[in-house]
Amino acid sequence: MTEMLNTIKVKKGFFNIRDTLECGQIFRYFQKDNGFVVISEDKICFAYEEGEETIIETTHPEYFRHFFDLERDYEKIYREAIVEDNVFLINSAKSGKGIHILNQNSYEMLFEFVISQNNNIPRIKKIISTLCERYGEKIHSNICDFYRFPSLETLKGISVEEYMGMGFGYRGEYFNAISNSYKREEEIEEMASLDEEALFSKLISLKGIGPKVANCILLFGYHKTRSFPIDTWMMKIYQQDFGGELKDNKKISQWFIDKFGDNSGYFQQYMFYYKRQKERELIEGIK
DNA sequence: GTCCAGGCGTCAA
DNA sequence: TTGACGCATGGA
Predict the structure, then answer these.
(1) Which of A89-103, A168-182, A273-287 shows the lowest mean pLDDT across its residues?
(2) With bands split at pLDDT 50, 70 and 90, how would you rate the model's confidence at A282?
(3) Contact (Cβ atoms closer than 8 angstroms) between residue A115 and residue A124
(4) Distance (Å, whole) CA A27 – CA A138
(5) Mean pLDDT over residues A13-34, rounded?
(6) What is the DSSP letter of A221?
(7) Residue A20 half-sphere exposure, CB side, CA atoms within 13 Å?
(8) What is the distance in angstroms measured between the alpha-carbon CA of A82 and the sugar C1' of B5?
(9) A147-179 in b/e burial notation, b at 16+ Cβ within 10 A?
């Protein structure tokens, strides 16, 4: 059942595929040849740059047009960032203006970001791909065969020991507890109708989800942009580049949301990515 | 070997 | 309410 590969073409000005994928919002992608393979639900695409355009090849063009958030005016967001009164934000926006916030599956985001806590990105990706290969449905496609993220029913059947065997560490307990606290996978999708506050409190009531992970799920799983994840990197930014003195992560997050409103999530992502890039450059410079 | 990672739960004070 | 601590694991 091979279907036709369709092609989406996007102007590169305010869409950069590498920055969008590498800015820490997605774990299910990898480099191949001159581009990137991206997996979501039971769908896959291959994206690469050619001249002034980004080309996305897929049998599900409508899905990935929305997935990459191509309908939104990112130039507007960028323009609103560069008139803010903070030089670090302005530099971040100039550097990362091609970042889009993806529209990912909220069920997958919820579980994947539980793995992210106190963990590094390469390792998060590795754990997720092991989980999918071992327990996910195999999907065939013209781009390459891949494995779907395991269903809720499947997750319920995985023991803590099996999670440990995949490198989950103590997060295995959380997967066990959270998967058993839902009856149907759709319950997680359906929470999209809640407002930020209600959704946030539902999420942090789950074992293993605190304010940081909840904010990531709000932003990356539900596209609620009035959210602002505070991790170790954003804490550095808050202290070093905004002169912040609050200690409580929840309060710091709220402080940024009060400042940036509906742009919070986008600006957060510009800055997170930029800070990590600068750090890497610094390390490269020392070598 | 040591430090740290897109933190959180627990338990004292 | 806040602060300290332990937690599994592997990347750098």
Answers:
(1) A273-287
(2) confident
(3) yes
(4) 18
(5) 97
(6) I
(7) 26
(8) 30
(9) bbbbebebbeebebebbeebebeebbebbbebb
Who touches strand B, with Cβ under 7 Å?
A 23-25, 116-121, 123-124, 170, 204, 206-214, 216, 229-234, 249, 268-269, 272, 276
Cβ proximity of A88 and A195 under 8 Å: no
Taken in order A7, A10, A12, A18, the sign of the CA dihedral is negative
Q: Give the Cα separation of A141 and A1 in Å (integer).
A: 9
- The gap between A126 CA and B3 C1' (Å) is 21
Residue A10 to residue A13: CA distance in whole angstroms: 9
Distance A118 CA to B6 C1' (A): 8
Alpha-helical regions (H) of A136-263: 152-156, 160-165, 171-179, 186-190, 196-204, 211-216, 222, 232-241, 249-260
Longest dimension (CA), chain A: 58
Other Cβ atoms within 10 Å of A278 Cβ, number? 14
Q: Which nucleotides of B are covered by protein (CB under 7 A)?
A: 4-9
pLDDT confidence band for A287 (50 / 70 / 90): low
Q: How far is the CA of A283 from the C1' of B3 (A)?
A: 15
CA A245 to CA A239: how far, in whole Å?
7
Angle in degrees, CA A197, A203, A204, rounded to 5: 90
The pair of three-digit structure tokens given for residue A27, joined into one six-digit string? 């774990």
